[in-house]
Structures are given as structure tokens and as C-alpha cells.
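RECORD TYPE: inverse folding
INPUT: C-alpha cells
STRUCTURE:
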């Protein structure tokens, strides 16, 4: 979660939880804004004039809007708009400031925009900070029960553009809009049946459907740690007001959130640690634990029609908050709109990392180049320059530009997933095997980490002793968990491990990963957490290029060396996600398991573009808890938000790998490059 303002810089850097807030001050302004003050950027003050307006909407509500206009009036400029619930004010000296004398350190997505000349617009969305009206989380595009003061984002954007075009001189009649995380949602929502002046839009890590793989739920399981941390700080407010001046952080009273949440155990006990104001937004997201109307009316993708702008959806492979939004948005724009450019750019980034980091590494994993700088210079800036100013890029932007981790190269495709990728299945087998060959009858004796037979592996899952998601104490969601070493989990008796032999050639997986499991439980409900892992050689570096630091046995990024010994045998998480078993037949209709009955559980793990290098192994881990990243499943069929301590019971879980029950991972594999 991101909390705008402790020194916003500290908040952004520490920002590791998850939610539409990811960038509380919104990553689009970059971490540099954290130290903004009156002296921060004299060149900006010399080149731009700041204005503050209250722009009237069609229902009479006035939205507070900050406009930075180039002082050079000899030419015209396009608008570049950012709409945010995190304040259009300036974070400086540890507090939030409004007023025309306050300038941020940066006013555009990158310095290139400031140098090229744009009319920058930042707006407090309806009902937040200095804007009037009533704020609604994930504003429903169609809401038959819309209350007085509530709005529709596409209408608010339309009315904003009508006013700006008439009242801000030296504009060229064109506008772009962009935003990261929650502002990414507002970007998407603002271009439905869009104003004709909007020629370019870039929803970046856009919150698209909170239940379906973005901040709130993954596979029907609640993302506990991230949402708790976010909603403890992001609360409703009386408006218009410049408050809060700062965002506080929840005091866990412990060094490890694992201990804090496990001690509370039930969701009612967890919620009781918050104030009524903190619970106001969090409690409904917990109570609505199925995909009901509460979530459906907030999903923006089905409404992304009438989009007249070129669109560039952006995301990160290692975004812990909104990993699914860019793909869902890209697919919806493609499905419902024809004729305009619809692009997708995905890099090896954390939430919003492309806006503020060089992108050379994450944790111990190196990407061998400044991927963030590449995106800002070669993708984002040329996209807006072309569609808002008519500047033809040196190289035509492909529909899909993605960074391939593992091999550490950029790839361009005509669609996502790449049409070249072919469907294959990695099957679980006896003795912890993982292979492309479907198991046959009587395939031998399995091992895994738990107890095995020829047909299945089993383990005992105890919700009072859950598997942690990182190997160290933390009270937030560290961004590096998305690539973190999984060796700590592989040794637990409640985690099954399957892996291939050492690869004799590269294997590149590009597209969705879908576990296909045959399972049983002695309980009446269970979570199934599947993790796809890249196992590094025991002697590292052992391959010829990517990640190789050359002489000295180190690989380097950001001027920080990771010793080769750290990476020897490293089990890099490539993608992981839970599936709450009660939703195996639909997220709107939970059903219990019959104890001991073998059932098929298929689900969507997420998107990847990763090369498993020769000399590495492919590993899959299976477990039934991932705590406190994911809330605890009591393993009894109950309404989890109302579960009591006595509902939490240990259960024996089985994963089958016989001829008739071939568990595995369905993936898309690219031919060798």
C-alpha cells in the first residue's frame, strides 16, 4: 500500500503493500516529488505557471484542478491529464500543500515531457481532497442506485475537457490521460465514450476488477496483509478539504505481521483492531467474499467501449498489487473497439516501478539493464508525442512490448499471448518429478515433501501453522516477494515440491499459466496455492550470459553486487497465486468439498514471460496457505468473514498424479529464439 506522505519518498520506497493506492501520491509524479519544496525545481518555476481551478460538472459539483502551463506562448501544447484520489496537492516538508506557490519536483511522467512542453493537468477526483461531490470506491460506470453527489468518471472527464479547451489558452485541442494504480482506473474510466479531444491514454497498473486478480481477491482468496495495511490509512473524508496532511501507519505492536494476524486468527478479531473510520471501506471488501453485485458493478472492463484514443496499457511482471489489470484492460479495449492503436507494455517491475526506478534489479534478481529508463524513453514518451503532437517515432511501437525475464531481453509481438506460443502441460509425477510426459498407470512411488503413493502426494495443512509468504519478519508486503527465494518453503512438510531435471536447453513460457489439479481433502474447504519457480544451478553463474556478472563471480545491478553464492541454488518465484477451493465451480457459487472425494480444480495463475535457462530447473510448489499475504481458510465450509476459532481445523490434502488424474500446469511455450 502506499501512503502519501511520511516524507512521501520514504512512503514510496517502502510502498510494498497492495491496493489501488499503490502510489498514494501516485507513481506518475515519481518519488522525486517527495522532497518537493519552493526551491526544488527553479527551472520548472521559470518555465511553467501554475493555476488552480474549480471546474464545474454537469450536476453542479466542482472538481479541484491544478494546471501547469508553459510560459512560452509562441506555440500550442496538448493537455496531459492525471486524475487521482490521492491529491493534486504537493507533498513537501512532510505534509500536503495546496496553493499556486507550491511546485512539485516533477510535473510529468518523466523529465522529457517537461522539456518537450505540455499543459499538465492534475485533478482531485469527485469527493476527494479539494473536490466536491461524493466519492465512491471504483466508481461504477452504470449504477441504478447512484446517490446525490456521486458521478460517472467518463462524464466528469468529458466536462473537464470541455472547460479546459475553452479556458486554458495555447492548447492544440488534443489531450492525453495517464495514471498508475487507482489513477490508472480513472484513466480507463475516463475514456469510455470519450471526449473527441482525447487522443492518447495510458492506464498503468490500472485497478480493473478488484475481485478478479487485482488488489482485493486472487482466486477467491482475500489478499489480507496488503488490504489491511492500505485501508488502515486510506479512509473516507469530509470534502473539500486539504486533509489529511500526512498518512499514518498502523501499529502492529509486533515485528512480524504473521504473528499479529495469527494471534487474532478470525476476521472479526482482525477488524476489531481498527477504528470505525478504518473499517468503513475495508469491512465491505471482506464481507463480500463472493463475486456478487458489489464487485460486478465496480468492474470497469465490460464498459470500455466508445474509446476514441490510442491506448497503451502498462504493467509489471512483479506487481504485487495490480498484476492483472493491464491484461484485462488490453483485452477489453481490443474486444470492444476497432481502428485505434491498442498497445501493451510489460516490464520486470514492481507496482509503478517503471515511473521511478531504473529497473535494473529486484531483490537479488538482476535484469541486466535499466528497464525503467528504457520504457520512459523508448515507449511512453514516443507514444504520447506521436498521438498528441504528430511526432513520428524513430521506431514504430509494436502492439505488444514485453520484457522476457530469465533471458533479460525485450520482445515485440503483434498480440498477447504471442501467436507463436504453443500449449503444453507440465505434469506432476512420482518422486517429485515434473515433466512434459503425462503419467501412466502405476508410475512408481511418489515422494514430494509430504507422504506419497504411486497415485498421489499428501500433506497436513494446519491453519494455525500456516506457510509464510516470505522467510523473514515484516509488517508489510515487501515488493521483492514476487521474486523471493522459495527454499525456505521447499523444506516444509506441508509444501509439495515437483521439479524437472536440469534443462539442456532454454524453455520460454509466454502467456497465461493455468494449474489443472486433481485433489482431495479431509476437510470441507481448502486453498490450493501453486507457485511456478526457476531453480538456479548449484554452481552459479553456470550459463553464458543473462545474470552473469563475469569476473569475480558476481552479477551487478544498481551498483549493488549480489554474490554468486547467494544465487547458487536460488529458487526464484516466477508466479504464484491461490485458489479457494469452494469456488472451483464459480466465484459466485461456493460449494463444499466432500471429504476424501477426488475433484478437479482448474484455475488461472497469472501471466508470465520467462525463460528458464539451460542448466536451470523448473519447479512447482503446492501448498494450502500463504500467510498473511492471503487470509486463512479455516478448511471447513463456512462464511470465512464470520468464522469462529473452532472452525479452523487441520486437514490432510492430497494432490493426484495418476493416469486418470494427471495434475499439472498448462502453459504456452515459445519456440527457441
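DESIGNED SEQUENCE:
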Amino acid at each position: 500500500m502506499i501512503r502519501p506522505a511520511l516524507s512521501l519518498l520514504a512512503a514510496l520506497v517502502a510502498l510494498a503493500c497492495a491496493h489501488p493506492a499503490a502510489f498514494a501520491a501516485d507513481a506518475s509524479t515519481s518519488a522525486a516529488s517527495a522532497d518537493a519544496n519552493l526551491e526544488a525545481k527553479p527551472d520548472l518555476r521559470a518555465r511553467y505557471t501554475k493555476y488552480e481551478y474549480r471546474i464545474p460538472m454537469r450536476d453542479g459539483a466542482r472538481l479541484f484542478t491544478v494546471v501547469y502551463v508553459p510560459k512560452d506562448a509562441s506555440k500550442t501544447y496538448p493537455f496531459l491529464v492525471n486524475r487521482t484520489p490521492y491529491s493534486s496537492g504537493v507533498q513537501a516538508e512532510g505534509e500536503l500543500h495546496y496553493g499556486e506557490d507550491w511546485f512539485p519536483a516533477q510535473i510529468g511522467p518523466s523529465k522529457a515531457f517537461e522539456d518537450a512542453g505540455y499543459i499538465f493537468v492534475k485533478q482531485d477526483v469527485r469527493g476527494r481532497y479539494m473536490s466536491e461531490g461524493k466519492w465512491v470506491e471504483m466508481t461504477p460506470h452504470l449504477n441504478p442506485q447512484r446517490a446525490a453527489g456521486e458521478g460517472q468518471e467518463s462524464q466528469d472527464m468529458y466536462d473537464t475537457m470541455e472547460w479546459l479547451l475553452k479556458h486554458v489558452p495555447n492548447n492544440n485541442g488534443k489531450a492525453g490521460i495517464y495514471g498508475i494504480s487507482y489513477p490508472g482506473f480513472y484513466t480507463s474510466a475516463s475514456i469510455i465514450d470519450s471526449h473527441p479531444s482525447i487522443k492518447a491514454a495510458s492506464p498503468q497498473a490500472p485497478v480493473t476488477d478488484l475481485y478478479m486478480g487485482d488488489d482485493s481477491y486472487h482466486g477467491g482468496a482475500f489478499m489480507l496483509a496488503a488490504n489491511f495495511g492500505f485501508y488502515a490509512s486510506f479512509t473516507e473524508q469530509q470534502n473539500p478539504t486539504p486533509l489529511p496532511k500526512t498518512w499514518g501507519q498502523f501499529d502492529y505492536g509486533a515485528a512480524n505481521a504473521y504473528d499479529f494476524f495469527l494471534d487474532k486468527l478470525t476476521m472479526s478479531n482482525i477488524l476489531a483492531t481498527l477504528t470505525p473510520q478504518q473499517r468503513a471501506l475495508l469491512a465491505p471488501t471482506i464481507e463480500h467474499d463472493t463475486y456478487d453485485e458489489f464487485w460486478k458493478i465496480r468492474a470497469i472492463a465490460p464498459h470500455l467501449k466508445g474509446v476514441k484514443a490510442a491506448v497503451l496499457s502498462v504493467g509489471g511482471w512483479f506487481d504485487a498489487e495490480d498484476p492483472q489489470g493491464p491484461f484485462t484492460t488490453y483485452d477489453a479495449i481490443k474486444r470492444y473497439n476497432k481502428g485505434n492503436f491498442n498497445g501493451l507494455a510489460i516490464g520486470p517491475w514492481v507496482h509503478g516501478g517503471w515511473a521511478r526506478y531504473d529497473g535494473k534489479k529486484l531483490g537479488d534478481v538482476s535484469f541486466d539493464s535499466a528497464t525503467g529508463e528504457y520504457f520512459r524513453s523508448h515507449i511512453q514518451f514516443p507514444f504520447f508525442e506521436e498521438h498528441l503532437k504528430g511526432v513520428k517515432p524513430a521506431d514504430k511501437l509494436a502492439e505488444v512490448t514485453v520484457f522476457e525475464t530469465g533471458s533479460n531481453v525485450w520482445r515485440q509481438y503483434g498480440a498477447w499471448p504471442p501467436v507463436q506460443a504453443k500449449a503444453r502441460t507440465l505434469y506432476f509425477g512420482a518422486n517429485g518429478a515434473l515433466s512434459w510426459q503425462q503419467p501412466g498407470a502405476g508410475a512408481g512411488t511418489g515422494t514430494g515433501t509430504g507422504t506419497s503413493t504411486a497415485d498421489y502426494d499428501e500433506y497436513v495443512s494446519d491453519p494455525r501453522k500456516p506457510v509464510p509468504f516470505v522467510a523473514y519478519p515484516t509488517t508489510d508486503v515487501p515488493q521483492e516477494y514476487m521474486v523471493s527465494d522459495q527454499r525456505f518453503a521447499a523444506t516444509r512438510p506441508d509444501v509439495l515440491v515437483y521439479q524437472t531435471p536440469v534443462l539442456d536447453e532454454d524453455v520460454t513460457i509466454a502467456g497465461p499459466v493455468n494449474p489443472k489439479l486433481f485433489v482431495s481433502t479431509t476437510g470441507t474447504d481448502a486453498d490450493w496455492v501453486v507457485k511456478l519457480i526457476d531453480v538456479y544451478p548449484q554452481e552459479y553463474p553456470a550459463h553464458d550470459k543473462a545474470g552473469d556478472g563475469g569476473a569475480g563471480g558476481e552479477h551487478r545491478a544498481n551498483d549493488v553486487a549480489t554474490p554468486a553464492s547467494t544465487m547458487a541454488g536460488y529458487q526464484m518465484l516466477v508466479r504464484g497465486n491461490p485458489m479457494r477451493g469452494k469456488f472451483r465451480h464459480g466465484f459466485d457459487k461456493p460449494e463444499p468439498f466432500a471429504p476424501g472425494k477426488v475433484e478437479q480444480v482448474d484455475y488461472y495463475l497469472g501471466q508470465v514471460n520467462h525463460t528458464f535457462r539451460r542448466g536451470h530447473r523448473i519447479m512447482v510448489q503446492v501448498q494450502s496457505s500463504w500467510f498473511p499475504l492471503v487470509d486463512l481458510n479455516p478448511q471447513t465450509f463456512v462464511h470465512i468473514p464470520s468464522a469462529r476459532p473452532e472452525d479452523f481445523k487441520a486437514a490432510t490434502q492430497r494432490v493426484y498424479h495418476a493416469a486418470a488424474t494427471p495434475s499439472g500446469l498448462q502453459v504456452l511455450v515459445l519456440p527457441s529464439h
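NOTES: Confidence is low (pLDDT under 50) at residues 1-40, 442-448, 542-560.
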